[in-house]
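Re: that chain you flagged

S.,

Sorry for the slow reply, it's been a week of failed gels. I finally had a moment to sit down with the sequence you sent. For the record, here it is as I used it:
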Amino acid sequence: MKLIAPAKINLYLEIIGNRPDGFHELVMILQSIDLADEIEIHSINDRTIRVNCNHPQVPTDKSNLIYRAAELMAKKFPEAFVKHGGVEITLNKHIPVAAGLAGGSTNAAAVLVGIDLLWNLGLTQSEIEELGAILGSDVPFCVAGGTVIATGRGEQLSPLPSLDHIYIVLGKYRSLEVSTAWAYTTYRQEYGHTYLQDTNDLAARAAAVHSGPIVKAILEKDAVAIAQKLHNDLEKVVLPSYPQVLQLRELFASQPGVIGTMMSGSGPSVFALCENQQQAEQIKQQVRQTIPDEDLELFVTRTIAHGVKVLTVDS
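Prediction finished late last night. Pasting the structure tokens below so you have them in one place:
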């Protein structure tokens, strides 16, 4: 079985409070893009889980979310595991590693979807999303895909009308990693005094985004208005600490044809929304000329309306 596992960007990320479980209460708008990894899943006779990957930075042991996703399915559905045997999973990596693009989460989502089909479990999408939430906050969205408001720690999803064909230039320094835990902890230290404390206030703030200006722009499919309303609270702590990310963001913002730019998630990826594909290609070339550093990966991609997708099923 071969599956496509798309990356995501955040069009909006607001941190509104603390949660009893130690995570943050968030309001986000998540968007699937067509930069994607490919995953192949095969049944094998012995009851083991094997992970292979073409990328040297990606671990293939239990620290990989792919492995943990397969292990979770084996634990939740032991009879199917006994009946069908183990799985060998091969990951062909295209999404940059440690980039704030949900690469690990989307791979895990693809494994959940793939094993559900491989073992004929007949799970609903919402059941797969619930399993995904055990693995990580972004996994349920990666199963669903498209354009979604995510609240709670990111696992509570409210779909929006899909945004198709908004073109994006994406940049990420290969050697640069930003710890998600560091970004959120630093934000709490610096801005925790602004957090809402009352649960009613938290619920009201999350609800307000549903009727806010960026959602209105998404409903109207107005790319320019969306680009003007991009927001990411984590930029306040990441950009001052990582000058390369700030420089890339400022360079994107200065390019003709860029209608909006922002860091995705906890970074260090930066993206620019563009008027069309031709503009996006020109901006990529211009940025490459300005920063000829081979460590900087640049991609032209676009928004898509789906999450994990099954490409082929070998009977």
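What I noticed first: The two ends are 9 Å apart (CA to CA).

Talk soon,
D.
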